[in-house]
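Appendix B. Chain record.
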Amino acid sequence: MAGSSQCKELRRKAQMIFQDSYESLNPRQTVYQAVVEPLKVHRLAADQSERREKVPAALDDAGLKPPADYLQRYPQELSGGQRQRVVIASALVMNPLYLVADEPVSMLDVSIRAEILNLLLRLRDEHQITMLYITHDLASAAYIADQVAVMYLGAIVEKGPAKAVLSNPQHPYTRSLMSVIPSPNPQRRKKRIVLKGETPNPIDLPSGCRFHPRCPQAIPLCSQNVPKSESVGEDHQAACLLLE
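Structure tokens predicted for this chain:
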């Protein structure tokens, strides 16, 4: 029972924003029902009156204004950006300390992405929330993150301050990811690093460095030794045998 109570406490402090906002919301629940449910489960409101105060406040904080216009709507009556704001409001109503945002803008129109990213940044600063932002888009990571960790097949291959990692990548995988980010300036376009082969089976990992079968710089030693994370700058580390 102690473990169960600890898990419940963790769920109150840590909230999640999923990639697909439509799948995150029950189509049979109104916006009010979706946002008020966490308050009921965790008993964070004394009565119905307090719940009716907290839900509109969370919707307003998530950018759905005026909140009264959205309370009785269903998810299918909202745009993708509005649904994601409802999901964010459902997290905010819990007053969390930690927020996990898993590809929160990847399924949104380009015109809406910047709005949601700016909203997350504002909420992070105003509410002092620690945020783990998961993405395949390094451009959005550069915009929102203070620290970046680049993973390949479940292992961190490079980490450090966002500016250092993304402006001066040291691991071949990070360099390949950076090379395919579109540039609006044709004179600043980089040569794309196209990785060979397919991503290995994660339950049958390659020997040595996990990236070596696709690495354009791999040497024979890469298939034999697992690289250790080495310092390549202030608080900047990368795991590559070519750096040792």
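Further analysis of this model is presented in Appendix C.
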